[in-house]
Specification:
about 450 residues; 6-stranded antiparallel beta sheet; 17 strands; alpha/beta; single chain; Ribosomal Protein L15, Chain: K, domain 2
């Protein structure tokens, strides 16, 4: 009891000190609580931030893996794409050494947008003397090398004046194709020939359809034409070159290519370089030694189809004679071949480029040279193109087609000042077409339906 009284007496005397101590303790407790709450909030924010960061990463990973899977799926089927290119071969910016697929097939081909003819890429075959595919073009040809393609024949059914069905067939030899090729194609052929000649023990033999490259009795490669495209087939295993930069075509199922099942289209200088690389593999497997490559200038003068027929490099066959189905026949006139409906393929077979060119030159003489010079000076952005099947779909028989009418029908942009007509698809009516330029195949289709070509 006495102790308690003493403590109370002491507290009364030191009340101020006790109050201060109590205040410090309370303040310390409050600060500790505040710091604890702050730490908890900070930890919660960090967890939220970390979880927010992990979500985009996962989404990005998913987005990035999907294109990779699509690319792999595309690259596992190199033969079915493109097209070709023409597989299409197609146009291609290619990373030369690291990308096995240098050009995305537009395929064979993108249809022309009728409302934007200026930027369209129509499908038509260039004249024989025109520049060949450039380096960035996609292989757009058909990659189906069947037995019918093997024959390199062009067939056409006609009806003569007596109502008897006549089937004409042109057979072009390898040399005929080469003679009617552009200078660039001939240069590529000459470059490959010079490379082969650098191997002393490698020989070549020219036949009707191809050039066989061999040593002893073993065939190592073949040079041939697929349509107007120069190609090379090689004695290699197609499976070894799938999904590579070479973009080879596997033709092992075609009997003709049984010994040389890897096919490469020589559509650009880069493809010629690839062909040399593959030839070196073939020759190396036979332990053949290479000497010096001596470049030569290879150039063959152009000859018409009629001239090639006369020197037996092109065969014109017909079943007009029921006994002799392969009897040679005389060409019939354009007036005898006019029909209600014509396809591009039929027009190419029925009328030679020389005849179409003569019609073009005749029409050109009707336009003053000064006017044509002004037209030629029009900038590229103001030039447009339109396909013949588009005109067939939007005009009636015997209509006159002009640039102004095309603008009214919204078939070409209003800014266009120069229009060129190209061949594609089917023309099923006669039209009078006035344009600044025509392709030779478009002229053929217009002529064969009884229409008229007029340069303006």
């Amino acid at each position: 009891m006495l102790l308690a009284l003493n403590i109370m007496e002491w507290c009364k005397e030191n009340a101020t000190i006790l109050i201060c101590v109590a205040a410090v303790v309370v303040a310390f407790i409050i600060v500790a609580i505040a710091l604890s709450v702050a730490r908890r909030r900070s930890a919660a924010k960090r967890r939220k931030a970390e979880s927010a960061k992990t979500k985009p990463v996962e989404e990005t990973a998913v987005e990035e893996t999907q294109p990779v899977e699509e690319t792999e799926a595309e690259e596992t089927q190199p033969v079915e794409e493109t097209a070709v290119e023409e597989t299409q071969p197609v146009e291609e910016s290619a990373v030369e050494e690291t990308q096995p697929v240098e050009e995305t097939a537009v395929e064979e081909t993108q249809p022309v947008d009728e409302t934007s003819v200026e930027e369209a890429q129509p499908v038509e075959e260039t004249p024989p003397v025109a520049e060949d595919d450039d380096e960035d073009e996609e292989d757009d040809g058909d990659e189906n090398f069947g037995e019918e393609d093997e024959e390199e024949e062009e067939r056409l059914s006609l009806v003569d004046a007596g109502g008897v069905k006549v089937v004409f067939r042109y057979q072009y030899s390898f040399m005929a194709r080469l003679i009617q090729s552009s200078e660039e194609v001939q240069r590529r052929y000459g470059e490959i020939r010079d490379y082969i000649a650098s191997y002393a023990k490698v020989k070549s033999n020219l036949s009707w359809k191809q050039v066989r490259i061999y040593t002893g009795r073993k065939t190592l490669a073949m040079l041939l034409f697929k349509g107007k495209k120069l190609c090379i087939s090689l004695a290699l295993n197609p499976e070894d070159y799938e999904d590579t930069k070479y973009r080879i075509i596997d033709v092992s199922e075609v009997k003709r290519f049984e010994k040389t099942p890897v096919l490469l289209k020589l559509t650009s200088p880069r493809k010629v370089r690839y062909a040399k690389e593959l030839l070196s593999v073939v020759f190396g497997a036979e332990q053949l030694e290479q000497g010096e490559v001596v470049p030569t200038e290879y150039r063959l003068p152009y000859q018409t189809t009629e001239e090639l027929i006369n020197i037996n490099l092109v065969k014109l066959l017909s079943n007009r004679d029921k006994v002799h189905a392969s009897q040679m026949v005389e060409p019939i006139s354009i007036s005898d071949m006019i029909r209600d409906r014509i396809t591009l393929r039929e027009a190419e077979l029925m009328v030679s480029d020389e005849v179409a060119a003569a019609v073009y030159e005749q029409s050109k003489t009707e336009v003053p040279e000064e006017k044509r010079a002004v037209k030629r000076s029009v900038t590229r952005s103001l030039k447009g193109e339109i396909n013949i099947d588009t005109l067939s779909d939007n005009f009636n028989a015997h209509d006159t087609v002009t640039l102004e009418v095309l603008k009214q029908k919204k078939l070409v942009p209003q800014k266009i000042q120069y229009i060129k007509v190209l061949a594609r698809g089917v023309l099923d009516k006669p039209l009078v077409i006035e344009a600044d330029d025509f392709s030779l195949n478009a002229i053929k289709m217009i002529m064969l339906t009884g229409g008229k070509v007029k340069l303006v």
